[in-house]
Amino acid sequence: MQILKSNRAQFVYETHALVKSFYxxxxxxxxxxxxxxxxxxxxxxxxxxxxxxxxxxVKFTVYNSLHNIENTYTCWDVGQADAAAYKNTFGRFLYTxxxxxxxxxxxxxxxxxxRPTKLIxxxxxxxxxxxxxxxYLEEQHFVSREKIALGMEIAKRxxxxxxxxxxxxxxSLYIGIPFCPTTCLYCSFTSYPISAWRGRVGEYLDAxxxxxxxxxxxxxxxxxxxxxxxGGTPTSLSAAELDRLLTAxxxxxDFGAVQEFTVEAGRADSITxxxxxxxxxxxxxxxSVNPQTMRQKTLDLIGRRHTVKQVTDAFLMARxxxxxxxxMDIILGLPGETEEDVQATIEQILVLTPDSLTVHxxxxxxxxxxxxxIAENGVTAYNNTEETMxxxxxxxxxxxxxxxxxxxxxxxxxxxxxxxxxxxxxxGIYNILIMEEKQTIVALGAGSITKKVTRRTSxxxxxxxxxxxxxxxxxxxxxxxxxxxxxxxxRVLFSE
Length: 496
Ligand code: SF4
Description:
Helix 10 (239-252) runs parallel beside helix 11 (273-281) and helix 14 packs parallel to helix 16. 42% of the residues lie in helices and 21% in strands. The chain has three domains: 1-103, Rossmann fold; 105-152; 165-444, tm_1862 like domain (pyruvate-formate lyase- activating enzyme, Alpha-Beta Horseshoe). It starts with a strand and ends with a helix. By secondary structure, the protein is an alpha/beta fold. The site of iron/sulfur cluster has 11 residues, from loops. Iron/sulfur cluster (SF4) binds next to loops.
């Protein structure tokens, strides 16, 4: 464990995110005067870094392995600044110090949030010119020109795609099915092996149906724009269970204005012709068949328990069933994968030509089994590179696709981003909504999080967006038992 000592509990989140971006392999703990008291054993460890917030400056010290001072950086510009300017100056100071210390520049500079395009979009909405936005990102946040161009292209496309949505009086619906055929090594979602829950799927669907009925009452008079069934893997359900779910969904909610209806089929080992027919019958417009990689050795290692051939077969089966908007997800930076492996994956995907391709950089989540795997096998998982990002982007563009949404996660391999590419008109509106937080998303099922978005106009005429959340419990048995409480949480949220 590496310790960063700070004399104030200030900017802890930002500091942690930025230091981890420069030192992805570190198990970093930030100790403030408060946390020292709570955690005596860890507080006795010598620090690798130290932050001192003083009256007229901030000092950042880096120690070497013998615990002697290696370098000290001082920022004198913070003394007179107001709170927002102070935070901004601190972020710039910490970034430039770490850049000097490591000799590394990060593609997204000191932006540590997950939604860089949201920042660009809001500046465009404020009427700022592209040139002003680019200068701001480059000078204030050290974002590379390449990422600025990518972010700008996406923000403009997002604004165009979202034009037809009902912001004020509309909403989108998310349904979570928390079951999968097996658990992938990198998974941090709410997901349980379907084999362990087979006997209680009916009870889960009972609870979900009740939640749908009660929630639909809260949404009366509002326009449903998009529906997304995710998880987990919704197609882990049998064809009959899927039919039951989709029948209930269409009976309970008004689909009259729905622009997009997605089912994240996801795992090839869960897709059958019968299930595809069920989805088609109920008007599903968009599905995902996610390989993650087309290298069998990696699929075996990450616990996908399906073959490359199953991916190809499932994709072709879906095409035959009439799906003309099929997404494929891939992950770059998977354990042991080289640039040649990524190239080979892309070439196999080119043959299939999906309608959209979502390119993820592997993110190592605390809760995932991958964390343990890295501890045992070393940090070879962090091998995403600019070259693999380029290979994937070129592959997507050669299929006539353009980037249409982007987000970042903590602890991403190579400090890059996840990008959704799509052919003309084959975007996933819901994906943009999740990132840009412009519309209420009502989320049902275990582990789902509802986000209520309210726009307000202040006395000075400026627009503010208020986002309120309400969570469902993750554990399936708890969800079933406490379903009334989950519904009550929504009643409270939507009555405010
Ligand atoms: S398919 Fe997705 S949700 Fe299911 S275990 Fe794998 S990563 Fe998790």
